[in-house]
């Protein structure tokens, strides 16, 4: 089997498609004047280095977290975002909003959280450490609750009161209830028949194997309509359970409208 990857197709890339373009705690925007911006409550680290244009350095907090006095920290709700890279995230599918908030406040490394199940209102994902690869979206997108110090949140509230009508208020404030339902995420995924999956991957043949990642191998296949797909299969030898695998599927499904990857469906067999 040839271990090398071949290019099947290509398309023009947007500037924001470049991974980690705006560094840690920065976001890529649709602003033609300034593509990279820091999240509210952060400032460019390049200012400290005397280079105002080096976004690879990312952003740092304006004010440090309390940590030891966790009740003095809070969260600011950012809306319409592509969620950060999930490498350093953790998912609990049964936790409610208040429990997730409390868990995040109890760990000084916790930076942000979001709902992982928009349908039921339960289940949350938590991020630890710097937030990487955030992007603003024109439509849809996800909410992200970012941890800030109490003093920083007080400044934000004061600023919003003085600048009514500022676009940033809609971006960082509460979601407009009049738009409830528009662009709402639908995470319902169809189930495929096992025999169909087995057939399109040629019985998960080694010739169709793309590689292995977390939880198991991935194989290429072609559906009856000619669409090429990749099938990721849970492997018992990887020592991970169904819950962990489903956590990954939930996060990928939630991100599928953001041009990262599209989940067509799943299959439960055996």
What is this structure's SSE topology?
Blueprint: E1 26-28, E2 36-38, E3 42-44, H1 46-49, E4 59-61, E5 73-82, E6 89-92, H2 97-105, E7 110-115, E8 124-128, E9 134-136, E10 142-149, H3 150-162, H4 167-172, H5 194-200, E11 209-213, E12 216-222, E13 228-232, H6 242-255
Parallel strand pairs: 1-9
Antiparallel strand pairs: 1-2, 3-4, 5-9, 5-10, 6-8, 7-8, 7-10, 11-12, 12-13
Structure in words:
It is a single chain. The protein is α+β, with helices and mostly antiparallel strands. The strands form three sheets. An eight-stranded mixed beta sheet has the order 2-1-9-5-10-7-8-6, with helices on both faces. It is globular and about 60 Å long. Residues 160-187 and 256-260 have low confidence and may be disordered. It is built from six helices and 13 strands. 20% of the residues lie in helices and 24% in strands. It has helices at 46-49, 97-105, 150-162, 167-172, 194-200, 242-255, and strands at 26-28, 36-38, 42-44, 59-61, 73-82, 89-92, 110-115, 124-128, 134-136, 142-149, 209-213, 216-222, 228-232. A hairpin with an 8-residue loop joins strand 7 (110-115) and strand 8 (124-128). It folds into two domains: 15-179, no CATH class; 194-258, Phosphorylase Kinase, domain 1.
Q: In terms of per-residue confidence, which ranges show pLDDT below 50 for 5 or more consecutive residues?
A: 160-187, 256-260
The spatial strand order of the largest sheet comes to 2-1-9-5-10-7-8-6
Proportion of residues in helical segments: 10-25%
**How many β-strand stretches?**
13
Into which percentage range does the β-strand content fall? Answer: 15-25%
SSE arrangement, N to C:
EEEHEEEHEEEEHHHEEEH
The radius of gyration over CA amounts to 21 Å
């Amino acid at each position: 089997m040839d271990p090398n990857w071949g290019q099947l197709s290509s398309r023009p890339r947007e500037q924001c498609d470049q991974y980690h373009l705006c560094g840690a705690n920065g976001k890529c925007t649709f602003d033609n004047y300034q593509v990279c911006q820091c999240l509210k409550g952060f400032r460019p680290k390049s200012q400290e280095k005397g280079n105002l244009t080096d976004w690879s350095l990312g952003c740092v907090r304006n004010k440090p977290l309390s940590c030891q006095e966790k009740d003095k920290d809070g969260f600011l709700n950012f809306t319409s975002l592509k969620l950060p890279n999930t490498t350093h995230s953790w998912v609990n599918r049964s936790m409610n909003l208040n429990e997730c908030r409390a868990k995040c406040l109890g760990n000084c490394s916790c930076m942000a959280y979001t709902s992982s199940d928009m349908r039921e209102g339960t289940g949350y994902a938590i991020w630890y450490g710097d937030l990487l690869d955030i992007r603003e979206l024109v439509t849809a997108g996800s909410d992200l609750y970012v941890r800030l110090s109490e003093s920083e949140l007080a400044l934000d509230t004061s600023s919003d009161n003085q600048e009514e009508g500022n676009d940033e208020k809609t971006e960082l404030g509460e979601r407009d209830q009049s738009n409830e339902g528009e662009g709402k995420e639908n995470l319902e995924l169809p189930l495929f028949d096992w025999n169909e999956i087995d057939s399109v991957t040629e019985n998960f043949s080694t010739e169709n194997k793309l590689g292995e990642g977390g939880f198991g191998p991935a194989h290429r296949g072609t559906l009856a309509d000619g669409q090429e797909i990749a099938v990721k299969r849970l492997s018992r030898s990887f020592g991970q359970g169904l819950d962990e695998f489903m956590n990954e599927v939930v996060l990928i499904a939630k991100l599928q409208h953001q041009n990262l990857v599209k989940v067509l469906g799943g299959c439960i067999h055996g």
